[in-house]
Amino acid sequence: MRHDALLFRCAYPRSPRELRDAEAALEKIRMREEFPDSVFSWEIARWLTQRFPGTAAIDWDDPRPDDDRLAAVLTPLIPELRERIVDANVPYLDYAKAKSLEWYVENLPPVTYDLLGVWVLWKVPAEFSQTWMRRAPREFFFDKTIIPRRDVSIVRELSSPPLPIQRLSANEGEAALDIARSALATRYRELYIATFGDPSTVISAEAGRGLEIVLFSVRSDKRLPVRDGYAPFFFRNGVPVGYGDAFVLGERIEVSFNIFPAFREGESAWCFARLLKLYRQLFGSTVFTIDPYQIGLGNDEAIDSGAFWFYRKLGFHPTDPKIERLARAEEKRKRRSSAATLRKLAMSAMILEVARQ
């Protein structure tokens, strides 16, 4: 897709002229306006109505909500419905459509709103679209080469000098959260830590080669009972290229990592290694684990992308000895694993253990 190819060149420009040409070409492409239609949580629905008033509405037609659920939610709130509770064929959907998304956010508690499961249609402002969403980079990085996965060493990156880090102001953190939430929403996704992110604790790490890692932590009222939760977002020359999350318990950290499809031909492995460097630097992590979902358990996208081999070739191995034996047998075959085999390999978590510094 030409749009994605141009976005890739904005993130990975080989020269200033190529960057200018890519941006100019994007200006000429008349993309269909982005209208993500998804089931967002009450928290994200409230954020949309407050941050972008008038741009989001409930899609009542597809799929059509269940009348019994609408009745249970609306009857206590609308006096006329309390009168009609004895009537047959009450047009609950008509009553529902008469109320705006703002009304539902203001009048329903989060749990009730989330159980209602309404679909929200968002007309995305241009500056928060996939095409033009940006963070201003400190400086642009130009290079004609892409670091391939075979040249990436996590051990080497972990022993490299510390990454320069700065804490953002609360206002800067809020602006970064707006970008993170929008980057997910325009791709029909939502992430717990971005949804409940604390704008006063956001940090930015300059990872080199035009890569900025912005790390969010969760609000105090939404923290997990045992583990600390974090979410990194990746910006290459200011373009959002991916995200992840991390859950820390002592020296052990469970990580996830997702590069958006348009940028997977870039320096994904190097970005991941720099992310682990940041975790080591901040938390002293020595044990990195990956949940089976990230490898492909119930996750077709991970199967299609061959996620197991991405992590395997970077030094991770399955925690289940039977899956490890299967992986070694696959390596000897020296050919692309079938989807069926990848699903078997995804039955185990993966782990990488490194020495303490």
Regions with little confidence, pLDDT below 50 for 5+ residues: none
CATH topology of the largest domain: Aminopeptidase
Total helical segments: 17
Number of domains: 3
User: How many β-strand runs?
Assistant: 12
Shape: globular
Structural class: alpha+beta
- Kindly provide the radius of gyration, computed on alpha-carbon positions and rounded to a whole number of angstroms: 23 Å
Largest sheet: 9 strands, mixed
- Provide the CATH superfamily of the largest domain: Gcn5-related N-acetyltransferase (GNAT)
CATH class of the largest domain: Alpha Beta
Percent of residues in beta strands: 15-25%
Tell me the strand order in the biggest sheet: 4-5-6-7-8-9-10-12-11
Short account of what is shown:
The protein is an alpha+beta fold. It has 17 helices and twelve strands. Helix 12 (268-283) links the parallel strand 9 and strand 10 (287-290).
Overall description:
This protein is α+β, with helices and mostly antiparallel strands and 357 residues long. It folds into three domains: 2-33, no CATH class; 37-122, no CATH class; 150-353, Aminopeptidase (3-Layer(aba) Sandwich), CATH 3.40.630.30. Helices cover 40% and strands 18% of the residues. A nine-stranded mixed beta sheet has the order 4-5-6-7-8-9-10-12-11, with helices on both faces. Strand 5 and strand 6 (211-217) form a beta hairpin. Helix 1 runs antiparallel to helix 2 (16-28) and helix 3 (42-51) packs across helix 7. The longest helix has 16 residues, at 170-185. It starts with a helix and ends with a strand.
